[in-house]
Amino acid sequence: MRKPIIAGNWKMNKTPDEAMALIGELKPLVADAKAEVVVCPPYACLAAAAQALAGSNIGLGAQNMDYHDSGAYTGEVSADMLKALGVEYVIIGHSERRQYYAETDATVNLKVKKALATGLVPILCVGEMLEEREQGITAEIVRMQTKLALLDVSAADVAKVVIAYEPVWAIGTGKTATSDDANDTIKTIRQAVRELYGDKAEEVRIQYGGSMNPKNVGELMAMSDIDGGLIGGASLKAEDFSKVVNY
Ligand code: PEP
Protein backbone atom coordinates (compact mmCIF):
# COMPACT_ATOMS: atom_id res chain seq x y z
CA MET A 1 0.00 0.00 0.00
CA ARG A 2 1.26 3.45 -0.90
CA LYS A 3 1.10 6.03 1.90
CA PRO A 4 -0.54 9.22 0.57
CA ILE A 5 1.68 12.29 0.56
CA ILE A 6 0.35 15.85 0.58
CA ALA A 7 2.89 18.61 0.00
CA GLY A 8 2.43 22.38 0.05
CA ASN A 9 4.39 24.42 -2.48
CA TRP A 10 4.50 27.94 -1.07
CA LYS A 11 6.25 29.28 -4.18
CA MET A 12 7.69 32.81 -3.66
CA ASN A 13 5.53 33.65 -0.66
CA LYS A 14 6.19 34.28 3.05
CA THR A 15 9.04 35.85 4.99
CA PRO A 16 10.76 33.76 7.69
CA ASP A 17 8.53 35.26 10.38
CA GLU A 18 5.41 34.58 8.32
CA ALA A 19 6.61 31.04 7.66
CA MET A 20 7.02 30.38 11.37
CA ALA A 21 3.57 31.79 12.08
CA LEU A 22 1.94 29.64 9.37
CA ILE A 23 3.72 26.50 10.61
CA GLY A 24 2.71 27.32 14.18
CA GLU A 25 -0.94 27.44 13.10
CA LEU A 26 -0.66 24.34 10.95
CA LYS A 27 1.01 21.94 13.38
CA PRO A 28 -1.95 21.23 15.68
CA LEU A 29 -4.36 21.09 12.73
CA VAL A 30 -2.49 18.25 10.96
CA ALA A 31 -1.06 16.43 13.99
CA ASP A 32 -3.28 13.39 13.39
CA ALA A 33 -2.97 13.24 9.61
CA LYS A 34 -3.00 9.81 7.98
CA ALA A 35 -1.04 11.20 5.05
CA GLU A 36 2.63 12.15 4.98
CA VAL A 37 2.64 15.96 5.22
CA VAL A 38 5.29 18.23 3.71
CA VAL A 39 5.70 21.99 3.39
CA CYS A 40 8.03 23.54 0.81
CA PRO A 41 8.78 27.15 1.77
CA PRO A 42 11.17 29.37 -0.25
CA TYR A 43 14.92 28.97 0.39
CA ALA A 44 15.03 32.08 2.59
CA CYS A 45 12.56 30.51 5.03
CA LEU A 46 14.04 27.01 5.26
CA ALA A 47 16.14 27.57 8.40
CA ALA A 48 13.25 29.22 10.26
CA ALA A 49 10.84 26.55 9.02
CA ALA A 50 13.15 23.73 10.16
CA GLN A 51 13.17 25.23 13.64
CA ALA A 52 9.40 25.68 13.70
CA LEU A 53 8.77 22.13 12.45
CA ALA A 54 11.04 20.38 14.96
CA GLY A 55 9.24 17.51 16.68
CA SER A 56 6.18 17.71 14.39
CA ASN A 57 4.84 15.23 11.83
CA ILE A 58 5.42 17.73 9.01
CA GLY A 59 8.41 17.21 6.72
CA LEU A 60 10.44 20.02 5.17
CA GLY A 61 10.91 20.38 1.42
CA ALA A 62 12.63 22.85 -0.90
CA GLN A 63 11.23 24.04 -4.22
CA ASN A 64 14.35 23.52 -6.35
CA MET A 65 18.09 22.88 -6.12
CA ASP A 66 21.15 22.81 -8.32
CA TYR A 67 22.70 19.53 -9.49
CA HIS A 68 26.35 20.54 -9.08
CA ASP A 69 28.14 19.77 -5.81
CA SER A 70 29.51 23.29 -5.30
CA GLY A 71 31.36 26.02 -7.19
CA ALA A 72 30.83 29.04 -9.38
CA TYR A 73 27.05 28.87 -9.80
CA THR A 74 25.90 32.26 -8.56
CA GLY A 75 22.49 32.25 -6.98
CA GLU A 76 22.20 28.47 -6.78
CA VAL A 77 21.77 26.14 -3.80
CA SER A 78 23.19 22.61 -3.56
CA ALA A 79 21.61 19.39 -2.32
CA ASP A 80 24.16 19.22 0.51
CA MET A 81 23.18 22.72 1.66
CA LEU A 82 19.52 21.70 1.76
CA LYS A 83 20.33 18.52 3.63
CA ALA A 84 22.36 20.49 6.19
CA LEU A 85 19.31 22.68 6.85
CA GLY A 86 17.16 19.66 7.65
CA VAL A 87 15.42 19.49 4.29
CA GLU A 88 14.11 16.02 3.36
CA TYR A 89 12.20 16.60 0.11
CA VAL A 90 12.82 18.72 -2.96
CA ILE A 91 10.44 19.68 -5.75
CA ILE A 92 12.15 19.14 -9.11
CA GLY A 93 11.03 20.27 -12.54
CA HIS A 94 8.00 22.29 -11.45
CA SER A 95 6.34 23.72 -14.56
CA GLU A 96 7.17 27.26 -13.39
CA ARG A 97 10.86 26.28 -13.37
CA ARG A 98 10.50 24.69 -16.80
CA GLN A 99 8.61 27.71 -18.20
CA TYR A 100 10.40 30.68 -16.62
CA TYR A 101 13.88 29.32 -15.84
CA ALA A 102 14.56 27.11 -18.84
CA GLU A 103 14.60 23.88 -16.85
CA THR A 104 14.89 20.98 -19.30
CA ASP A 105 14.25 17.24 -19.08
CA ALA A 106 18.05 16.84 -18.98
CA THR A 107 18.55 19.16 -15.98
CA VAL A 108 15.52 17.63 -14.27
CA ASN A 109 17.16 14.21 -14.64
CA LEU A 110 20.48 15.48 -13.20
CA LYS A 111 18.62 17.00 -10.25
CA VAL A 112 16.59 13.86 -9.56
CA LYS A 113 19.80 11.81 -9.46
CA LYS A 114 21.60 14.34 -7.26
CA ALA A 115 18.66 14.50 -4.84
CA LEU A 116 18.60 10.71 -4.53
CA ALA A 117 22.36 10.51 -4.09
CA THR A 118 22.11 13.06 -1.26
CA GLY A 119 19.25 11.30 0.49
CA LEU A 120 16.57 13.83 -0.47
CA VAL A 121 13.19 12.67 -1.76
CA PRO A 122 12.62 14.20 -5.19
CA ILE A 123 9.08 15.36 -5.92
CA LEU A 124 9.33 15.17 -9.70
CA CYS A 125 6.77 17.30 -11.55
CA VAL A 126 5.45 16.32 -14.97
CA GLY A 127 2.47 17.61 -16.90
CA GLU A 128 1.21 18.86 -20.21
CA MET A 129 0.60 22.43 -21.36
CA LEU A 130 -2.84 23.44 -22.59
CA GLU A 131 -1.79 23.32 -26.29
CA GLU A 132 -0.44 19.82 -25.78
CA ARG A 133 -3.66 18.69 -24.18
CA GLU A 134 -5.63 20.21 -27.07
CA GLN A 135 -3.39 18.38 -29.56
CA GLY A 136 -4.24 15.13 -27.78
CA ILE A 137 -0.64 14.42 -26.79
CA THR A 138 -0.96 14.46 -22.98
CA ALA A 139 0.05 10.81 -22.70
CA GLU A 140 3.10 11.24 -24.94
CA ILE A 141 4.26 14.30 -22.99
CA VAL A 142 3.96 12.78 -19.52
CA ARG A 143 5.48 9.47 -20.66
CA MET A 144 8.45 11.30 -22.18
CA GLN A 145 8.97 13.62 -19.19
CA THR A 146 8.76 10.70 -16.77
CA LYS A 147 11.13 8.42 -18.64
CA LEU A 148 13.69 11.18 -19.28
CA ALA A 149 13.62 12.27 -15.64
CA LEU A 150 14.29 8.70 -14.50
CA LEU A 151 17.16 8.00 -16.93
CA ASP A 152 19.88 6.06 -15.03
CA VAL A 153 17.89 6.05 -11.77
CA SER A 154 18.40 2.59 -10.24
CA ALA A 155 15.57 0.17 -9.49
CA ALA A 156 16.61 0.38 -5.83
CA ASP A 157 16.03 4.15 -5.84
CA VAL A 158 12.93 4.53 -7.97
CA ALA A 159 10.42 3.80 -5.21
CA LYS A 160 11.81 6.78 -3.26
CA VAL A 161 10.79 9.16 -6.04
CA VAL A 162 7.45 10.93 -5.67
CA ILE A 163 5.94 12.03 -8.99
CA ALA A 164 3.52 14.95 -9.16
CA TYR A 165 1.24 14.98 -12.19
CA GLU A 166 0.47 18.65 -12.69
CA PRO A 167 -1.40 19.64 -15.84
CA VAL A 168 0.09 23.09 -16.44
CA TRP A 169 -3.29 24.59 -17.40
CA ALA A 170 -4.66 23.66 -13.97
CA ILE A 171 -1.94 25.32 -11.89
CA GLY A 172 -3.09 28.47 -10.13
CA THR A 173 -6.04 28.82 -12.50
CA GLY A 174 -8.84 27.34 -10.42
CA LYS A 175 -9.32 24.75 -13.21
CA THR A 176 -8.91 21.17 -12.03
CA ALA A 177 -8.58 18.08 -14.18
CA THR A 178 -11.62 15.88 -13.62
CA SER A 179 -10.83 13.12 -11.17
CA ASP A 180 -11.23 10.52 -13.94
CA ASP A 181 -8.89 12.41 -16.27
CA ALA A 182 -6.30 12.93 -13.55
CA ASN A 183 -6.49 9.26 -12.57
CA ASP A 184 -6.16 8.11 -16.19
CA THR A 185 -3.07 10.24 -16.79
CA ILE A 186 -1.56 9.06 -13.52
CA LYS A 187 -2.14 5.48 -14.70
CA THR A 188 -0.31 6.39 -17.92
CA ILE A 189 2.61 7.70 -15.85
CA ARG A 190 2.65 4.55 -13.72
CA GLN A 191 2.66 2.43 -16.88
CA ALA A 192 5.71 4.37 -18.13
CA VAL A 193 7.45 3.63 -14.81
CA ARG A 194 6.39 -0.02 -15.11
CA GLU A 195 7.98 -0.27 -18.56
CA LEU A 196 11.29 0.74 -16.96
CA TYR A 197 11.11 -0.92 -13.53
CA GLY A 198 8.39 -3.60 -13.64
CA ASP A 199 6.43 -4.11 -10.44
CA LYS A 200 8.48 -1.48 -8.58
CA ALA A 201 6.10 0.98 -10.26
CA GLU A 202 3.41 -0.07 -7.80
CA GLU A 203 5.49 1.45 -4.99
CA VAL A 204 5.94 4.85 -6.62
CA ARG A 205 3.63 7.50 -5.22
CA ILE A 206 2.05 9.75 -7.82
CA GLN A 207 0.35 12.94 -6.68
CA TYR A 208 -2.08 15.16 -8.49
CA GLY A 209 -1.43 18.91 -8.50
CA GLY A 210 -3.40 21.77 -10.02
CA SER A 211 -5.90 23.83 -8.04
CA MET A 212 -6.45 21.05 -5.51
CA ASN A 213 -8.38 22.51 -2.57
CA PRO A 214 -10.60 21.55 0.38
CA LYS A 215 -13.62 21.19 -1.95
CA ASN A 216 -12.18 18.84 -4.57
CA VAL A 217 -9.62 16.89 -2.53
CA GLY A 218 -12.07 14.16 -1.41
CA GLU A 219 -13.09 13.23 -4.93
CA LEU A 220 -9.52 13.28 -6.24
CA MET A 221 -8.12 11.24 -3.35
CA ALA A 222 -10.86 8.63 -3.78
CA MET A 223 -9.38 7.64 -7.16
CA SER A 224 -7.42 4.40 -7.45
CA ASP A 225 -4.07 5.82 -8.56
CA ILE A 226 -3.92 9.28 -6.97
CA ASP A 227 -1.56 9.01 -4.01
CA GLY A 228 -1.66 12.57 -2.74
CA GLY A 229 -1.40 16.15 -3.85
CA LEU A 230 1.00 18.96 -4.54
CA ILE A 231 -0.82 22.06 -3.38
CA GLY A 232 0.03 25.64 -4.31
CA GLY A 233 -2.49 28.37 -3.44
CA ALA A 234 -4.39 26.34 -0.86
CA SER A 235 -1.18 25.62 1.08
CA LEU A 236 -0.74 29.26 2.09
CA LYS A 237 -3.55 29.23 4.65
CA ALA A 238 -3.31 26.81 7.56
CA GLU A 239 -7.03 26.12 7.61
CA ASP A 240 -7.28 25.33 3.89
CA PHE A 241 -4.13 23.22 3.81
CA SER A 242 -5.17 21.26 6.89
CA LYS A 243 -8.52 20.50 5.28
CA VAL A 244 -6.71 19.14 2.24
CA VAL A 245 -4.34 17.11 4.42
CA ASN A 246 -7.21 15.69 6.49
CA TYR A 247 -9.33 14.96 3.37
C1 PEP B 1 1.63 24.00 -7.81
O1 PEP B 1 2.19 25.07 -7.87
O2 PEP B 1 2.29 22.97 -7.77
C2 PEP B 1 0.16 23.99 -7.78
C3 PEP B 1 -0.46 22.86 -7.92
O3 PEP B 1 -0.46 25.20 -7.58
P1 PEP B 1 -2.05 25.46 -7.36
O4 PEP B 1 -2.49 24.47 -6.31
O5 PEP B 1 -2.13 26.86 -6.89
O6 PEP B 1 -2.72 25.21 -8.66
What does this structure look like?
With 247 residues, the chain is an alpha/beta fold. The protein is 41% helix and 15% strand. The chain has helices at residues 16-30, 46-53, 79-84, 95-100, 105-118, 130-134, 138-149, 155-158, 179-197, 217-221, 238-245, and strands spanning 5-9, 36-40, 58-62, 89-92, 121-126, 162-165, 205-209, 228-231. An 8-stranded parallel barrel has the order 1-2-3-4-5-6-7-8, surrounded by 5 helices. Helix 2 links the parallel strand 2 and strand 3 (58-62). Helix 7 packs across helix 9. The protein is globular and about 45 Å long. The two termini are 18 Å apart. Phosphoenolpyruvate is lined by residues 9, 166, 171-172, 209-212, 230-234.
In short:
By secondary structure, the chain is an alpha/beta fold. Helix content is 41%, strand content 15%. It has an eight-stranded parallel β-barrel with strand order 1-2-3-4-5-6-7-8, surrounded by five helices.
- Average pLDDT, all residues: 97
Query: Low-confidence parts, pLDDT < 50 over ≥5 residues?
Result: none
Q: In angstroms, what is the radius of gyration?
A: 17 Å
Percent of residues in β-strands = 15-25%
Oligomer kind: single chain
Name the strands of the widest sheet in spatial order.
Answer: 1-2-3-4-5-6-7-8
Structure ligands? phosphoenolpyruvate
Proportion of residues in helical segments: 40-55%
Head-to-tail CA distance between termini = 18 Å
Q: State the shape.
A: globular
Structural class: alpha/beta
**Largest sheet at a glance?**
8 strands, parallel, barrel
Tally of DSSP β-strands: 8
SSE topology string: EHEHEHEHHEHHHEHEHEH
In DSSP terms (H or I, runs of 4 or more residues), the helix count works out at 11
